[in-house]
Specification:
Elements lengths: L1 E6 L6 E6 L2 E5 L5 H9 L10 E3 L5 H4 L2 H8 L3 E3 L1 H7 L7 E3 L6 E3 L2 E7 L8 E7 L2 E6 L7 H7 L4 E5 L4 H6 L4 H8 L7 H10 L7 E5 L8 H10 L7 E3 L9 E2 L1
Parallel strand pairs: 3-4, 4-5, 5-6, 10-11, 11-12, 12-13
Antiparallel strand pairs: 1-2, 1-14, 2-3, 7-8, 8-9, 9-10
The structure holds zinc ion (2 copies).
One zinc ion binds next to helix 2.
């Protein structure tokens, strides 16, 4: 199994997970042309995608999904709650999943789990292939025991490091937006993400990808410092930024 972030942040998200001949796109916050450009940088074409999994309805994850699904005629997987919000959009094939039930995409096992976020029914995923586990967790305002139990023991993690508490507090956002982002249904700050990673069984964890960094309320340097405090070496972590995302990462 391998994966890459096509770019991550409030201006658009997209992640590709590949196992065997399967390529699955998780979220699409990019217009179709931009998606194709970002895929091409990773030697992939839009036509290679087999399905889209949606975490939730926010524009930075959803914006491009309808167009991509129609152009490629591929199924879109989402929760019932997400579907309630986006049902106006024409999608060729919709597959609803239960947040507490794993499902198979060929030889790829997808284990969704619910996260506390201000969307109707937000999900994140753990992917399993031939004994390797990849956990993805962005867009959550707090950490539940269930989130921790899902992410523990992974070989690779793509995890939100959204903001620095002090930068958010002193930054340019309105009071209400600060409350939203910093609240229990907003986004994880660097300290929360650090504590979450620290609490996991990291025996097999070879790669940590920090994602969904706020451009106003965080810096890559602060995220790096948080991760290095946990003892991660250069080769065991990277940051998926808005423009470049990451290259392919083997799991
Ligand atoms: Zn988001
Ligand atoms: Zn969101």
């Amino acid at each position: 199994m391998r994966f890459c972030s096509l770019g991550s942040g409030s201006r658009g998200n997209g992640t590709v997970v590949q196992s065997g001949n399967r390529s699955v796109l998780i979220d699409c916050g990019f217009p179709f042309k931009e998606l194709c450009r970002r895929l091409a940088l990773r030697q992939l074409q839009a036509e290679d995608l087999d399905a889209i999994l949606v975490t939730h309805e926010h524009g930075d994850h959803w914006r491009g999904v309808g167009v991509v699904a129609r152009k490629l005629n591929i199924p879109v997987f989402m929760t019932k709650g997400t579907y309630r919000v986006v049902r106006q959009e024409k999608i060729p094939e919709i597959e609803l999943f239960n947040c507490h039930q794993s499902f198979q995409l060929d030889d790829l096992t997808v284990q969704p789990f619910p996260v506390p976020h201000d969307a109707v029914e937000a999900a994140q995923f753990v992917f399993e292939h031939e004994g390797s586990r990849l956990g993805i967790a962005t867009d959550l305002g707090s950490v539940s025991n269930h989130v921790t139990s899902m992410l523990t023991g992974c070989d690779a993690l793509l995890m939100e490091f959204n903001h620095d508490e002090q930068m958010l507090r002193e930054g340019p956002y309105s009071a209400s937006l600060k409350r939203r982002v910093g609240g229990n249904f907003g986004h994880l700050n660097n300290r929360q993400s650090q504590e979450l990673v620290d609490s996991l069984d990291k025996t097999d964890l070879n790669m940590l990808v920090a994602a969904h960094l706020s451009e106003q309320n965080n810096t890559p340097e602060k995220v790096k410092a948080s991760i290095e405090e946990l003892g991660f070496k250069d080769e065991n972590y990277t940051i998926a930024d808005q423009q470049l995302g990451t290259d392919w990462i083997e799991v």
